[in-house]
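Researcher: Here's a chain I'd like modeled. Treat it as a single chain, no partners, no ligands.
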Amino acid sequence: MGGTKRVPLATYRLQFNRRFGFNDARRLLPYLHHLGIDTIYASPIFRARPGSQHGYDIVDPNDLNPDLGSERDFELLTEAVRERGMGWVQDIVPNHMAFHHDNHMLMGIFRLGGFSRFSEYFDIDRGHPDELFRYRLMAPFLERPYKECLERGDFKIHLGEDGLYVTYKHHAFTMQEQDYMRLFASYPGDKGRRDEQGPRWQDPQMKILASAIMEIAMRPYDPRRFKAGQVSEEAATIWRLYRESDVVRGFIDEKLESLKPDVLDKLLSIQRFRLTPWKEAAEVINYRRFFDVSSLICLATHKPGVFDATHGLVTELVEAGAITGLRIDHIDGLRLPESYLLQLRERLGEIYIIVEKVLAGGEQLRWWSVEGTTGYDFLNAVNGVFCRRDSAKAFESVYREFTGCESDPRDLLYEKKKLVMNANLKPELDNLARWFAEALEDTAWKEIVDELPPAERLREALVETLAELPVYRTYMSPANQSWHDGVPLAEAIGRAETRNPHLAAELRLLTTAMMAAPRLTGRLAPGRDSLGFAMTLQQYTGAVMAKGFEDTFLYVYNRLISLNEVGGDPIRFGSSLADFHAFNLARGASHPHSMSATSTHDTKRGEDARARINVLSEIPGEWEEHIKHWAGINASKKTRKNGEEIPDRNDEYFLYQTLIGSYPFGDDLAAYRYRIARYVRKAAREAKVHTYWGDPDTSYEDGYAAFAESILTPGADSGFLADFLPFQRRIAHYGVFNSLSQTLIKICAPGVPDFYQGAELWNLNLVDPDNRGPVDYGARVRMLDAITKDIARDPADAALKCQADIPGGRIKLFLIHKALAARKANPYLLEKGTYTELRTDGEFAEHVIAFARAHKGAYAICVVPRFLTGIVSEVDFPFGREVWGDTTVMLPDGPSRRWTDAITGQPVMGTDAIHIGDLLRLFPVSLLMEDNE
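Model: Modeled as a single isolated chain. Structure tokens:
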């Protein structure tokens, strides 16, 4: 059943939203196909919250998002994709949905409670110790205390197609069906007055209304009474009467508008949700969230019925051939990732499947039934080889001296993970500690402990352990009892005990609980036994890493921020060439069809911004001179609060690197100042040192933003720009070569090259929302058309011509187009070919990365430069023997071959070795394809 596997040649990520819908994508297809892309890689296209900018806040996974266009628009798009022989990889979200009125599954629970067929579909803690939240879902969206909102009249009850619901600002929550009787018959506050005996009730429509209300109140629950499991026939009748009868509508509106606060309070107090201020979610929560985002409620995907209820449309689209592959969002959030993937594979057949899985701490992708990951492992592997490792000590010295930051980065990461557990993720941690204690009360533990430790010490043991865990999660389960999966956790517990010997007993209990849980049978309520605790803990650890490492540590430890990336290791200053080749060899052997990304919608900065910042690793001395000079020039533009500078030196250091990486080639500087001002506010909040999302310090944020805008404003006192711009332009020049090198590596190394929307030109964007803005595709279409015409006349001349437009990015677009054409012409060679490191010799051997791909006697050779600041000037290109001297690349062993450079179209002669200067004569990188003519 299902589709057949279609491995993409190259994917292109499209971010669908109101500004870019199905029709926009259809108009873009000729350009993408011409560029060399054969597969659309789409952000979620399913019904999301109205106005969603990203699509991950889904309200109905079995319906298309109307914000993106009609069903017919989607059909026309998928037909156009198939007509061009292209594929479609679809991003799906099995972990969570939006906490929103349009989420009919969730609203069904509010309406019917345990009678709803969706009652077990969400990860809700129905045994919460706080009676206010036991059997009632917390709805933490109020801006003020509940009583204050009630007195202000912020709550309103309405009648709609889906029944009764209460609104608060733009939020809405479905009420119980029994509330028809409470509101419209003898509802509290009538004081015995029976309005239903008046003349109005003699109206035939009012009599039907009364009958429907009585049926709801008196008849027992019967699933057949509910349309699609949601609205009963009687409720549907009431809605019809409301729309068609002026008398009924007048009566209902009068009742709803005349509700007094005390009556409304009584009605709200018996709902299956409890409205609370959003800040309360920092202390207590009774449902699993996506990280700390209360507006995203997690699904219990492992429970019966949930998979079928949430994968209907995607199954139809796969079977219809509209979708040829899937990207599984946040696989680590699922309780049983491996079981989910097996179920998905069984349902959909051998289609292309990748997972959003961040590999950390030397972790390898598990042998799941998938083609690979979304490519953060590749991103960091290729990025690392453009960071000069022998500058580590010098850069550390520069960073410490400028900022005064003396903390060991490992200790800093440990502290930041503890910070988010005790702040952002505190209520989840408290729940885990409680479940840990409950698990230990299970009779299965009686023989292990005589007396349970205090709850606060169990909580401390959890914090200390998870702060030491080097990976996003472990995968122990009843189906997977490999001790190998417990190694990272056991090592973390060991490190925690070294730091905290006073917790030795509690940590040993945690070890036993986690390691033995899959083998034990608990006797408590389902999910609250030893196994339930172990499984829930593993779902929590990914959030700790994401919030503690990605969204905190990466904004605080700023030694070289090009290394501060999702899945990266900024503590390690770059990667060796040997490690890079070993990575590619392993990837080619285990997951040759894994994605190779260099920019995504979640990266901290665009690929070309990282490429520039990496250049700094080559010149730590010059970098130090400039930042000291800039700090002196800009000191007067800082503000102070309580004697402290705004921004502090660490944030200032972060800003200078950001400007080096993201400063535009020639765009509107006013727009750039706005982007940077907005960005530094977000960066400061993520760092959680002076301000954070839960309690913003706007004075620090305003001061930081004002500082950034001030130093970027030209004028009589713009001494900073006078010194910064020449230095930045020099860095940008070398960054171009890094960018081209990593682009060609991505296309030629094992894996499926993935291109983020717009990144075929320079991608100098910063983290979202900066990287989710509109893309000027018109300019790209015109540029590619011009490139194509130039190539048709003379490929070599076209290669030279595009170098005259470095600021416009034409050179990068040219490279992608030519390299993808070579990949398309030799699909098996660059998809399935073996990977071989090629030796380089000579004066600048370490400045060259070279490897070969081989398949059935055919070869392709990729040769790219790096570390060019010491080789060519800031106005020159790395061309010819006068630059490269005696540096050569050794060719694969075998018979003599004739080669053609796929980028320039030029023949290249060589038997055993080729001079780099001969390869790099017309273009900064080279892709040699065997000439069989």
